[in-house]
Design goal:
outer membrane lipoprotein receptor (LolB), chain A; 11 helices; 19% helix; 2 domains; 12-stranded mixed sheet; alpha+beta
């Protein structure tokens, strides 16, 4: 999408466009006392974000659409934002076609092909809660221990800065700097067409792969922003086609041929957040979850944590609620000559294979696919000051997938 070249008459944005006998259009209100559309052009979208928050509340829908040759996956988040109380009540749906590229689905989108998932979240200031399938709310608190906060820092980013629910185009719009005058809309608002770099656009993408654009300042992502007559955000759209090659090079979203984001706000000032019913149980997520390393061999765990990854899991009794069963932990610590990339993972896989062959049958019998196992963990690589040697080390968990 190319940036629109606007007619000269739109250069004077503050002019009166009312016809004979009509009342002049109302100037956009701003919490700073200066109308949004009378701010400097480069400051108008930042002022619009402040004006939107000043409305008190709004309903929103944020949509990510992933196109491929084998179907389209859609992630849609809807909810209510209370800017004054810094709270949000959110529902998210993820619909992935059965033939969608498997690696992109399972690794980047967090769900297997053919999945239809429904999730619920709440935000209270800096805390984010997720409702498990059993109906219990897991409360992830930014005030938890440093170790815990580090493992869930990506998830806590859902407590946004611009709006109570984060990682949407609202965050992108706030920091966007228009270079061309906007086009007036029929209702007295404005429509902006601009381009932003990949790093800025990445804020509206899932952290699972958005980080791959953290250093990309070259690719230009087209962004459309529509404000109402009061300077409040109504809609934003971004086309990420220009950054797909960069993502593919980094091994992200393989097979995805198009990626678009949309953000829509309605009912400004008319949408209070409904509180969670007091009868619904809440748990502190730091106490209710653990890392894979914290699950003892023979024990089971659930990945129903809202995190979208296995950075933390919930220990549960082995049975219908369990997604995995651990059958061992292994340590890799070795000196490598040459390229160390992948060496630690290969060594861990070999060690877990040996554990799988000797583990009690009850610990591995339910694995899916039958006879398979999985390895979770990470490797650190340190290089010596002299020579080509490096040290590869890491702790890994050996487990079987149950569902």
């Amino acid at each position: 999408m190319a940036a629109a070249t606007l007619p000269l008459l739109f250069a004077a944005v503050g002019c009166d466009t009312s016809g004979p006998g009509e009342e002049p259009a109302a100037k956009a209100a701003s919490p700073t006392g200066k109308p949004v559309f009378e701010e400097r052009l480069r400051d108008q979208l930042n002022a619009a974000s402040r004006a939107t928050a000043a409305s008190g509340s709004a309903r929103f829908t944020a949509t990510l659409t992933y196109g491929s040759a084998r179907g389209t996956a859609v992630e849609r988040t809807t909810g209510v934002l209370d800017y004054a109380m810094d709270t949000a009540r959110v529902e998210r749906s993820v619909d992935i076609p059965r033939d969608f590229p498997e690696l992109a689905a399972t690794v980047d989108l967090g769900h297997a092909p053919g999945t239809t998932a429904r999730e619920q979240y709440t935000v209270e200031e800096n805390d984010v809660s997720y409702r498990t399938s059993a109906g219990t709310w897991l409360r992830y608190s930014a005030s938890g221990s440093m170790e815990f906060a580090d493992t869930v820092s990506d998830f806590l980013e859902y407590a946004g800065e611009t709006a109570p629910w984060g990682r949407t185009l609202a965050e992108v719009v706030r920091h966007a700097d228009p270079e061309r005058n906007p086009e007036p809309t029929p209702d007295g608002g404005r429509r902006y067409e601009l381009r932003i770099d990949g790093r800025s656009a990445a804020v509206a993408l899932p952290k699972a792969f958005g980080h791959a654009l953290d250093q990309d300042r070259t690719a230009e992502v087209p962004l459309t922003v529509v404000l109402d007559k009061d300077g409040r955000l109504l809609r934003a759209e971004a086309d990420y086609e220009a950054v797909l090659d960069a993502l593919h090079i980094r091994g992200v979203l393989g097979g995805v041929t198009s990626l678009r984001a949309e953000y829509v706000l309605t009912d400004h000032g008319k949408a209070p957040v409904t509180p969670v019913p007091v009868r619904e149980r809440s748990q502190d997520a730091e106490q209710a979850t653990t890392t894979l390393q914290g699950v003892k061999p023979g024990a089971c765990a659930s990945t129903d944590t809202g995190l979208g990854s296995m950075v933390r899991v919930r220990p549960v009794p082995c049975g219908k609620d369990a997604d995995l069963r651990v059958f061992g932990h292994v340590r890799v610590d070795m000196t490598v000559q040459g390229d160390p990339r992948g060496v630690g993972e290969e060594a861990a896989d070999e060690k877990c294979g040996a554990r799988h062959r000797t583990a009690p049958g009850a610990w591995t019998a339910g694995g899916r696919p039958a006879g398979s196992y999985r390895v979770g963990g990470g490797t650190s690589i340190s290089y010596r000051y002299t020579g080509a040697d490096s040290t590869v080390s890491g702790d890994y968990t050996c487990y079987v997938h149950l569902n």
